[in-house]
Amino acid sequence: MGIYTIHAGASHLTIHGRTRHQASTQAVSLPSIKFAVDAAKGEVPCVGNGDIWNLDDVVTMREETGVRGVMAARGLLAK
Predict the structure, then answer these.
(1) What are phi and psi for residue 14, nearest 5 degrees?
(2) Which residues touch 46 (CB under 8 Å, ≥6 apart)?
(3) Who contacts 57 (Cβ-Cβ below 8 Å, separation ≥6)?
(4) How many C-beta atoms lie closer than 10 Å to residue 29's C-beta?
(5) Where are the extended beta strands (E) located within the chain?
(6) Coil, helix or strand for 59?
(7) Structural domain spans, the chain
(8) Which one of 12, 28, 56, 78 is CB 3.0 to 4.6 Å from 50, fit for a cystine?
(9) Phi, psi values for residue 74, rounded to 5°
(10) Residue 65 is inside which H or E element, if any?
């Protein structure tokens, strides 16, 4: 991303670990999120999204992907 991210003016990136064609019943791809985080090279804070149901999921996503934060939707709405 490098220079493109800076020129685009992005303040952060939210990365969802599924393609738009994957159902939410399929597991989120943590390696895909990590790939995007690595591509950002620390120049823009990254937020991971997908399969966050509890605090353990938050910890796992942060440890396995390097995101600085997480975003949850279904998990919060379901509870």
Answers:
(1) -110, 125
(2) 12, 13, 14, 15, 33, 36, 37, 40, 65, 66, 67, 68
(3) 51, 70, 75
(4) 17
(5) 13-16, 46-49, 69-71
(6) helix
(7) 2-78
(8) 28
(9) -55, -45
(10) helix 55-65
For the question of whether the overall pTM of this predicted structure is more than 0.70, the answer is yes
52 and 18 Cβ atoms separated by less than 8 Å: no
Cα 53 to Cα 73: distance, rounded to the nearest angstrom: 9
Burial letters for 46-60: b for 16+ Cβ neighbours within 10 Å, e otherwise? bbbbbbbeeeebbeb
**Each residue's pLDDT tens digit, 9-19:** 788 899 998 98
* Residue carrying the six token digits 């440890």: 63
Contacts of 58 (CB under 8 A, 6+ apart): 52, 70
CATH superfamily ID and name for 2-78: Aldolase class I (3.20.20.70)
